[in-house]
C-alpha cells in the first residue's frame, strides 16, 4: 500500500494502489503550490493525522485544500459535494520510485480545463 506523507510525518495518506498517472495543473493555485495531483476516489484513500491541519477554501469555492499545520506541506484537496467521487492527493509526497512510475499529464486548468497531452 503506497503511503504519501508530509515532511514532518504528521499527515499520512494511505492509498489502496499506486497512481498510474499524475497531473500537473497550471491553474492559479496549483502552479503556486507546485504539486502533482493523483486523482482518486476518496474511498481509496485513508487520511491519518497526528497533528493539526489547516485548510484553504477560495472565496465561493467548492473544495478545500488541506495542509499540515506543522511543516506546511499541501497534502490533498476534497470537494464539499459528497457525490463528487474524486479527490486530489499531492503525489509529490509519495516515495520517488512510486512517483517515477506514474505517467505525467499536463492539465490546462488556467484556460481550457483540458489535458494538453
UniProtKB/TrEMBL annotation:
Belongs to the Gfa family. It comes from Primorskyibacter flagellatus. This is Aldehyde-activating protein. InterPro entries: CENP-V-like (IPR052355), CENP-V/GFA (IPR006913), Mss4-like_sf (IPR011057). The keyword Cytoplasm does not apply. One of its GO terms (molecular function) is metal ion binding. Residues 2-117 form the CENP-V/GFA domain. Pfam families: GFA (PF04828). It comes from the Bacteria. Keywords: Metal-binding, Zinc. Coiled coil: none annotated.
Amino acid at each position: 500500500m503506497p503511503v504519501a506523507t508530509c515532511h514532518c510525518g504528521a499527515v499520512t495518506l494511505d492509498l489502496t494502489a499506486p497512481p498510474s498517472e499524475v497531473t500537473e495543473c497550471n491553474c492559479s493555485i496549483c502552479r503556486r503550490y507546485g504539486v502533482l495531483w493523483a486523482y482518486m476516489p476518496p474511498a481509496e484513500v485513508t487520511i491519518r493525522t497526528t497533528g493539526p491541519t489547516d485548510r484553504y477554501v477560495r472565496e465561493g469555492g467548492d473544495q478545500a485544500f488541506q495542509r499540515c499545520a506543522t511543516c506546511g506541506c499541501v497534502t490533498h484537496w476534497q470537494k464539499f459535494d459528497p457525490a463528487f467521487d474524486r479527490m486530489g492527493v499531492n503525489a509529490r509526497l509519495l516515495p520517488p520510485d512510486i512517483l517515477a512510475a506514474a505517467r505525467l499529464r499536463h492539465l490546462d486548468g488556467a484556460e481550457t480545463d483540458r489535458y494538453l497531452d
